[in-house]
Amino acid sequence: MPGMPGGPKPGVPFRPRAPEPEEEEHGEHHCAGHGPEDPPPEINIWHGMLMVDNERALQPGFFNQLLFRYENPKDRCDPRNQPPPYLASLLNFAILAFVLARFGRKPLADALLQRKQSIMAEIDTATRLKEDAQARLEEYEDRLENIGEKLDEVRAEYAAQAEIEKQHILAEAEERRARMRRDAEFRIEQERKAARDELLHEAVANATAAAEALIKTQMSAGDQDKMAAAYLQAIGAAVAKSSTRPGVEAR
Amino acid sequence: MSYDAIARRWARAIYEIGKETSSVQRLEADISAFAETYAESEELSGVLDNPLVPEAAREAILVEIAGKLNVSDIAKNTLRLLARKRRIAALPDVARQLARLADEDQNVLRAEVTSAGPLPADYLDKLAQELTKATGKKVVVSHKQDKSLIGGVVTKIGDRVIDGSVRARLDGFRESLLR
Fold this sequence. Notes:
By secondary structure, chain A is mainly alpha-helical. Chain A has helices at 54-57, 62-67, 86-103, 105-218, 221-241, and strands at 23-25, 28-30, 51-52, 68-69.
């Protein structure tokens, strides 16, 4: 900028410091006057505010220097190369700030508000989750602290149930054993009675058969007559008694 | 098939007729004779019971047989009435009921005497006399043999049984052993 330190004087083309011969340091290539130990180059404040135009930038005149600047893309060590003007950057920034302030304030504010609300909601959710997690943690810690007692209680309960079940099974087995024994004794008694009855019937049948056979062989006509006579004597009394029991009346 | 109820009514009616005509004994004898013939002859019972045989033919057969048996007119009419009413199948039961009524009318009891062997007639007479003395009624005795009794005598009078057989004693002996 004219009048500013480091700026070119009006009517005098901007002359950056002439580069020195190329130097090799730490394996890097630097233009002359651009090495790490060289003073910083002069700042281009206002030359070439509009565009790069090497031909017009070298022509004299304020407007040529204001609007155009020189830049050799093929030789970056060309001593006539001019960096972009600082004023152009300021101007761009001012325009950007204006545009942002003019057109982006409300949407930006809304977006920021929305973002703030969403962040607050997320913070609330995270807080709630944290509290829940904390509560669960405390609960688990509490459980972990009492897990030994719980374990003992559960063990004792299972042991008591197992004992009850054992007693129940033993009682049931004892009852079943007693019942089976009673049944077996009853069956044995029944079988014994049946066998005794069968033997008795068989013996009686044999005895009566033998008696019948003996009577048949030994009964004579005289015996028949005696029996008939005895029957005749007893029949009157038997009829008078009106008894119907067989074999009694005529004896 | 039992005709007890029907037989009782018919027997009572015939008995009343016999009482009115003072011919109960004759009537009972005629009905019993015809009933015996009817029960013994399957051909006769088959014809008289057959509804396919015309009623006139059945009646003619009945009258002819009754005539041969010398049955009284009252008995003949009774038999014809039974045939018309289709109750001829109940005739044996009617005869039995009528005999019972006739016996009651005559104050007679019938005794059935069973023995293992034969019994002399005088023994049966004595037995009848003893029974008459014991019951107070005239007892008519009939006799049959049954060798399964082994020995002794059994008398059945109505519902009563006086058993003096060896078989009964053996049964009693067996019962006493089984007790």
